[in-house]
Amino acid sequence: MFARTITDGLFEMHDDGSIVLIGGYSPTSGRFHFPRLDSCPYAGTTDVETVALSTEGTLWAWTAVTAAPPGYAGTVPFGFGVVELGDEQLRVITRLTEPDPSQLTFGQRMRLVAETLPLENGETATTWAFETATQP
């Protein structure tokens, strides 16, 4: 169903097509981080637990990428932004499925989706993105 993942360990894909980002949580700092690291980026401790992060959040910032990055063969423009995950109060820099910034607003509800991207070598890679929660 999906191509290879863009990088191992960033998210898990489920058989139903849904995905979940994999982050870390440190009981010492009481904070979440993404991507998961062996040490807490806030406290420096190694008590990091692997956690599945929220699949819904709130849009904080956004723009359109109008020039393709190296190795990317997909369409431009594409959306790019910052989504704060609800339960964790963690902001994630992410691809957005909406390429038109005028269609997005601060505080808009977003949900995590898998997205397959074409690469210059003709292969594809699956990554994550956020779409507006009102989309079907």
Summarize the structure.
With about 140 residues, the chain is mainly beta.
Question: What does this entry look like structurally?
Answer:
By secondary structure, this protein is mostly beta strands. It has one domain (4-132). The protein is built from no helices and ten strands. The strands form two sheets. Strands 1-10-9-6-7-8 form a six-stranded mixed beta sheet, with no helix packed on it. Strands 2, 3, 4 and 5 form a four-stranded antiparallel beta sheet that branches. The protein is globular, with a radius of gyration of 15 Å. The chain starts with a strand and ends with a strand. The model has no long low-confidence stretch (mean pLDDT 91).
Oligomer: single chain
State the order of secondary-structure elements, H for helix, E for strand.
EEEEEEEEEE
Work out the radius of gyration: 15 Å
Counting structural domains, the number is: 1
- Poorly predicted residue ranges: none
Which descriptors would you attach to this protein?
single chain, 136 residues, mainly beta, six-stranded mixed β-sheet, four-stranded antiparallel β-sheet, 10 strands, globular
Secondary-structure topology with pairs:
Layout: E1 4-5, E2 11-13, E3 19-26, E4 31-33, E5 49-52, E6 56-65, E7 78-85, E8 90-96, E9 109-118, E10 124-132
Parallel strand pairs: 1-10
Antiparallel strand pairs: 2-3, 3-4, 3-5, 6-7, 6-9, 7-8, 9-10
